[in-house]
Amino acid sequence: MVDIIERITAFIVSVLIMIFGIPSNFDPVEKNPVNVETENIEIISNNYGINTSGKYVFDNSAGFGVYYLTINQSNEMREYAESLGEDFFEENNLIIVDVTLSDTAEKAFVSSVTENGDTLNLQYYTKDVADIGCCVICYDSICIKTSKQITKVNAIEIPAI
User: Fold this and answer.
1) In this structure, how many other beta carbons lie within 10 angstroms of the beta carbon of residue 55?
2) What pTM does this model have?
3) Tens of pLDDT along 69-88?
4) Which residue from 107, 106, 110, 122 is spatially nearest to 57, judged by alpha carbons?
């Protein structure tokens, strides 16, 4: 009987934490790129609405719309999409790298970003930023605004600094 009560309590707590998250007082965005202006990089923490990691290059709003309506349905990504504006893709491409995190206390940080011809080279790392977190798979989306010439992305996770 006690085992059933423990399982029910654990389930309820995990659902509540998944919905509301764990309050913390850290800044989840650390910008430290090389050769790309910091205002072109944003890291979006997704509590829910995404269940796979990947690398994406968007050169039009239709492709990006499919991404945030089917792959990353989080409210945070939808707000980011609305902030870009309708004419964004006329002069820019958007790179998104969805990074898998092992728990809610871990976050992704950009170490360097360089453009080499038609390829964007991204180095990032993950590290714990809180003392406590839930053991549930989470995702951070590294969003980088680039020029139209960028059509490929090479993303590498490096050891934490």
Assistant:
1) 16
2) 0.74
3) 888 888 888 898 989 887 89
4) 122
